[in-house]
C-alpha cells in the first residue's frame, strides 16, 4: 500500500531500546548442580544463592513427590543477593528422584538447577 | 560493661580429642552453655566442602547477667582431600559359623564417611572392582562405614577416629564377622521376603546392615561385625507374599560363633481402609499424604505405620492389619487446605471412612518490634514453620510498619524472625499456637561476626549457620559478603554463672590439649564486638575449629 507523504519536515522518532533483563546470576550453589547427590542418614543441605535486582522466587520440587515445602530463605542485607536453602532428611522414598530449583524474577528467563538423588 | 570473649582453635591435628559438639564440655561431661556449632557451606565451585566449627564463649567475671560474648570468629576452611582404596572381603558361606572363607572378593556396597555432629560427610558406591573414592574436608574424627550390598556374606565394617589430612589410600580386606541367622514367621508360617535391619546395640551402637530380606521360606542370614548385643528389626511394609508386616524388634546376643534369632509376628489378617479427601469446596485434593499409625493391633505384635497419597480423585487406599489407628492427613504444600487428624478403627476386611473435608487456610499476622518494644522492625525475614506436621515453611518480610501477614494452613507454627544484619536485634524464635497473635518482640542478643576464609583467600557468599550446641536449635544464619565477612546477632542461651561454673576458658583449655596456636591468641583477645565488623581487620580474630 502506497502512502502519500504530505509536504513538510520529517524526522525519525527514536525507538526506545529495551535492555534485555538478565536472568538471575549464580552466586553460590551447593552441591554442584547436575550431579548425583548420595543421601545418607546424615541428610543433605542444598542451597542456591543468586544475584538479581528484582525479587526472586525459588520453587523447589521433586520429580515424583512434587513441590517441596520446607525450603527457607537465606537472609541477607543486600537485596540483590537472594538465596534459598533446603535440608533433605534421610528418606528412602527420595531414591532416584530429581530435585529441582526453579529461580525466577518474573521478568527474564527462569534458571533451573537440578540434582539427581540416590539414597545409599 | 566489658565482656571478654574467647574462642578456641581446636586441635585440628589431634587424634585423641573428642570430636563433635559432644566433645566440648564443661568438665563434668556436659556441653558448656553458650557453645556454638557453626556450619559453613561454601559454594560448590570454590573447591571447598561444608565444614563445622565449634565456638566456645567466655563469661566475664563482672558479668552478673551471665551473657556470654564472642570475639570475631575466623572460620578457616580446611583443604579438600581425597580418600580412596580398593576393598575386598572374605566371602563365607552364609550359614557357616567358622567355615573357612574361600577367597577375598571385591567388596560390593557403599562407603560412607561422616564426622559426628558436623556437616562433614561423604558417601559413594564401590565399583565392581571394589574401588571407591570420595572427598572430604581435611580433618580428624571421621567415622567410616563399609555397608555391603549382601549382608549375608559380608558384615558391615566400621572404622572410627579416622584422620584425613592428606590424600589417603584405604585399601584393605574386610573381616568375615560372625553369622546370625533365624526365621521370621507369622502363625508359624515363614514370611517370604520380610524386610529386616540389623543394628548393633553393644559394645557401641552402630548400624550393622542396610535393609535385607528373608528368603521364600522366611529364613534369613546376616553377618554381624563381631560379638555383641544386636537388635534385629522387622521393617513394616509388604512381605513377598503381599502381607502387611508390622514393625517389630528383638534383641539377640552374638558370640564368636555367631547367634540365632527367630521372630514370630503373630496373626497377619488383612484390613483395607479407604477414603476421599476434599477441600472446603468439596473438590478432591490430589497428592495429600495420608499417614496411618497404629495405636493397637489385633492379634499381631509390634506397631504399624502406613503412608499413602490420594489419587486424582482425592481417594486413598491403605492396607493395614486390623486395629485402632490414628490417621493424619496432610495436604500438599501448594494446596490451600489445612491438615487434620482423626481416629479410625480398621476391622478385618474393608472399611470406607468416607469423605474427609479439610479446612481452609488461616492468617498468621502481627507486628515485629525492636527489643523492649522500642519501635517497629522493618525488613525482618519472617518464616513460619508448621509444628507437628511436615515442617512446611512459608516466608515473608515485614514492611515499613513492621507488620507482616501469612496465609497458611491452620496449625501451630514456629516463627523465626531474622532481622537485617545491620540491626542490633537478634534472630528470634517464637511459638504461635493456632489462632494466636503473631506479634513478635525481637530479642536482644549477642553479636557474632567473623570471616570465612581458606588458604585460597576469603570465602565469599558462604552460608553460615549457627546452632546452639546444647539444643541444636538454629540461632541464626547469614551469608558472607564478597569479603567473606558475616555478622549476625544471636539470642544466646544464658550461661549459668553459679559457683560451680568453670567458665569457658577452663573447658576450652581442657579440650585443647594439643592446641595448634589459635587458642593462645584467643586467650588475650579482647571482645571488640561492637564495631569491628570489617572484613579486613582480622588481626584480633580467633580461629575456631
Can you tell me about this structure?
- Chain A is mainly β and 120 residues long.
- Chain A has a single domain, classed as Immunoglobulins (Immunoglobulin-like), CATH 2.60.40.10.
- Chain A has strands spanning 25-30, 36-39, 44-51, 57-62, 66-67, 72-74, 81-88, 98-104, 111-119.
- Chain A has a five-stranded mixed β-sheet, with no helix packed on it.
- The model of chain A has no long low-confidence stretch (mean pLDDT 88).
- Chain B has 545 residues and is an all-beta fold.
- Chain B has a domain at 271-347: Sandwich (Immunoglobulin-like).
- Chain B contains two helices and 44 strands.
- At the A-B interface, strand 1, strand 3, strand 5, strand 6 and strand 7 of A face strand 6, strand 7, strand 33 and strand 42 of B.
Q: How does the SSE layout of this entry go?
A:
The complex is a heterodimer of chains A (120) and B (545).
Chain A: E1 25-30, E2 36-39, E3 44-51, E4 57-62, E5 66-67, E6 72-74, E7 81-88, E8 98-104, E9 111-119
Parallel strand pairs in A: 2-9
Antiparallel strand pairs in A: 1-3, 3-7, 4-5, 4-8, 6-7, 8-9
Chain B: E1 36-41, E2 51-55, E3 73-76, E4 80-90, E5 104-106, E6 109-114, E7 121-125, E8 131-137, E9 139-148, E10 157-164, E11 168-169, E12 172-174, E13 178-186, E14 189-190, E15 195-202, E16 206-207, E17 212-213, E18 219-224, E19 228-234, E20 237-238, E21 244-245, E22 248-254, E23 259-260, E24 263-264, E25 271-278, E26 289-297, E27 305-309, E28 315-320, E29 323-330, E30 340-346, E31 349-357, E32 361-369, E33 381-386, E34 393-397, E35 403-409, E36 413-418, E37 428-432, E38 440-441, E39 446-454, E40 457-458, E41 463-468, E42 474-479, E43 485-490, H1 503-511, H2 518-523, E44 542-544
Parallel strand pairs in B: 3-39, 3-44, 4-11, 4-12, 13-23, 13-24, 25-31, 32-38
Antiparallel strand pairs in B: 1-2, 1-41, 4-5, 4-8, 6-7, 6-9, 9-10, 13-14, 13-18, 15-16, 15-17, 15-19, 19-22, 20-21, 25-28, 26-27, 26-29, 29-30, 32-35, 33-34, 33-36, 36-37, 39-40, 39-43, 41-42
Amino acid at each position: 500500500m502506497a502512502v502519500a507523504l504530505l509536504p513538510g519536515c520529517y524526522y525519525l522518532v527514536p525507538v526506545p531500546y529495551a535492555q534485555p533483563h538478565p536472568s538471575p546470576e549464580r552466586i553460590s550453589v551447593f552441591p554442584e548442580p547436575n550431579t548425583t547427590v548420595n543421601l545418607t542418614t546424615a541428610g543433605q543441605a542444598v542451597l542456591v544463592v543468586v544475584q538479581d535486582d528484582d525479587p526472586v522466587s525459588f520453587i523447589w520440587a521433586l520429580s515424583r513427590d512434587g513441590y517441596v515445602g520446607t525450603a527457607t530463605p537465606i537472609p541477607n542485607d543486600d537485596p540483590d543477593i537472594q538465596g534459598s536453602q533446603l535440608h533433605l532428611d534421610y528418606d528412602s522414598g527420595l531414591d532416584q528422584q530429581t530435585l529441582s530449583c526453579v529461580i525466577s524474577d518474573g521478568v527474564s528467563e527462569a534458571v533451573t538447577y537440578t540434582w539427581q538423588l540416590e539414597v545409599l | 560493661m566489658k565482656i571478654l570473649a574467647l574462642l578456641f582453635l581446636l586441635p585440628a591435628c589431634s587424634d585423641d580429642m573428642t570430636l563433635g559438639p559432644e566433645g566440648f564440655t564443661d568438665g563434668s561431661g556436659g556441653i558448656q552453655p553458650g557453645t556454638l556449632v557453626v556450619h559453613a557451606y561454601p559454594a560448590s565451585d570454590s573447591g571447598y566442602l561444608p565444614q563445622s566449627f565449634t565456638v566456645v564463649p567466655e563469661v566475664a567475671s563482672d558479668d552478673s547477667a551471665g551473657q556470654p560474648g564472642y570475639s570475631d570468629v575466623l572460620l578457616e576452611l580446611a583443604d579438600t582431600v581425597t580418600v580412596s582404596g580398593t576393598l575386598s572381603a572374605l566371602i563365607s558361606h552364609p550359614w557357616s559359623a567358622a567355615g573357612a572363607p574361600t577367597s577375598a572378593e571385591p567388596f560390593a556396597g557403599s562407603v560412607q564417611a561422616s564426622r559426628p555432629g558436623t556437616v562433614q560427610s561423604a558417601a559413594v558406591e564401590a565399583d565392581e572392582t571394589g574401588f571407591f573414592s570420595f572427598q572430604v574436608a581435611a580433618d580428624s574424627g571421621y567415622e567410616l562405614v563399609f555397608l555391603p550390598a549382601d549382608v549375608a556374606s559380608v558384615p558391615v565394617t566400621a572404622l572410627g577416629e579416622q584422620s584425613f589430612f592428606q590424600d589417603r589410600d584405604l585399601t584393605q580386606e574386610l573381616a568375615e564377622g560372625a553369622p546370625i541367622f533365624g526365621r521370621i514367621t507369622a502363625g508359624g508360617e515363614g514370611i517370604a521376603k520380610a524386610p529386616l535391619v540389623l543394628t548393633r546395640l553393644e559394645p557401641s551402637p552402630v548400624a550393622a546392615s542396610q535393609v535385607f530380606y528373608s528368603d521364600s521360606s522366611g529364613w534369613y542370614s546376616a553377618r554381624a561385625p563381631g560379638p555383641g548385643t544386636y537388635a534385629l528389626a522387622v521393617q513394616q511394609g509388604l512381605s513377598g507374599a503381599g502381607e502387611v508386616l508390622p514393625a517389630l524388634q528383638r534383641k539377640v546376643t552374638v558370640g564368636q560363633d555367631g547367634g540365632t534369632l527367630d521372630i514370630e509376628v503373630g496373626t497377619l489378617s488383612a484390613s483395607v481402609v479407604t477414603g476421599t479427601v476434599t477441600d472446603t469446596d468439596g473438590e478432591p485434593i490430589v497428592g495429600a499424604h495420608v499417614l496411618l499409625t497404629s495405636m493397637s493391633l489385633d492379634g499381631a505384635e509390634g506397631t504399624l505405620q502406613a503412608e499413602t497419597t490420594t489419587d486424582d480423585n482425592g481417594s486413598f487406599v491403605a492396607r493395614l492389619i486390623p486395629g485402632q489407628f490414628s490417621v493424619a492427613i496432610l495436604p500438599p504444600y501448594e494446596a490451600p487446605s489445612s491438615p487434620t487428624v482423626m481416629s479410625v478403627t480398621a476391622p478385618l476386611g474393608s472399611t470406607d471412612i468416607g469423605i474427609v473435608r479439610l479446612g481452609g487456610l488461616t492468617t498468621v499476622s502481627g507486628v515485629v518490634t525492636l527489643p523492649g518494644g522500642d519501635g517497629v522492625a522493618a525488613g525482618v525475614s519472617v518464616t513460619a514453620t508448621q509444628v507437628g506436621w511436615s515442617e512446611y515453611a512459608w516466608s515473608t518480610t515485614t514492611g515499613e510498619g513492621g507488620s507482616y501477614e501469612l496465609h497458611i494452613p491452620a496449625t501451630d507454627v514456629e516463627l523465626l524472625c531474622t532481622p537485617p544484619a545491620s540491626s542490633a536485634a537478634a534472630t528470634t524464635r517464637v511459638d504461635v499456637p493456632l489462632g494466636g497473635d503473631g506479634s513478635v518482640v525481637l530479642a536482644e542478643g549477642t553479636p557474632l561476626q567473623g570471616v570465612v576464609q581458606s588458604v585460597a583467600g576469603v570465602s565469599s557468599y558462604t552460608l553460615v549457620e549457627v546452632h546452639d550446641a546444647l539444643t541444636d536449635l538454629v540461632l541464626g544464619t547469614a551469608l558472607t559478603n564478597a569479603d567473606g565477612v558475616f555478622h549476625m546477632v544471636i539470642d544466646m542461651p544464658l550461661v549459668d554463672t553459679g559457683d560451680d561454673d568453670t567458665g569457658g576458658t577452663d573447658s576450652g583449655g581442657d579440650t585443647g590439649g594439643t592446641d595448634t596456636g589459635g587458642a593462645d591468641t584467643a586467650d588475650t583477645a579482647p571482645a571488640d564486638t561492637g564495631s569491628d565488623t570489617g572484613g579486613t581487620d582480622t588481626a584480633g580474630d580467633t580461629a575456631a575449629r
